[in-house]
Amino acid sequence: MSTKSILLIDDEPNLAAVIAVCLESFKGWQVRVVNSGKDGLSIVEDLQPDAILLDVMMPAMDGIEVYQNLQANSHTQHIPVILLTAKVQSRDRECFENLGVVGIIAKPFDPMAIADRIAQILDW
Asked: Which keywords does the record carry (predicted)?
């Protein structure tokens, strides 16, 4: 079985570092971290990760715009996307689910449990 790779797009460097350490330590996944949607879109096609963790609220280009760009590109639309968001009201959650993302993880979350939650969402 090959090692899973994840692209993490989040504008909070400290949070992204914690997530990356947890995923690498607990599951052995390879995690590439970028801190903006623009940077994520610039590398995703070459990187071809097994999944993307995508923060919703980011400056310049939010996660929804990034997701729409991913879906519009035939080279990236197959990559499963999990949204990371503090917007957890039912209308927000419904909007996100209607986009077609494979999962939503609410912030704040337990860093010790995030790897298991991702594995559950992706059936890894």
From this structure: Phosphoprotein
- The DSSP code for 102 is S
Q: Would you give the DSSP letter of residue 30? A: E
Residue 72's Cβ-count burial label (10 Å; 0-12, 13-18, 19+) is exposed
d(Cα 85, Cα 110) in Å, to the nearest integer? Answer: 13
Q: For the residues 102-115, what does the mean pLDDT come to?
A: 91
Q: Count the domains in the chain.
A: 1
Q: Is the pLDDT confidence value at 1 over 70?
A: no
Tokens 């949204």, residue located: 83
What pTM does this model have? 0.93
- Inter-helix orientation angle 90-99/63-72, to 10°: 20
Contact 101, 9 (CB under 8 A): no
2 closest CA partner among 49, 46, 39, 36:
49
| Range of weakest confidence among 1-5, 69-73, 110-114, 115-119 | 1-5
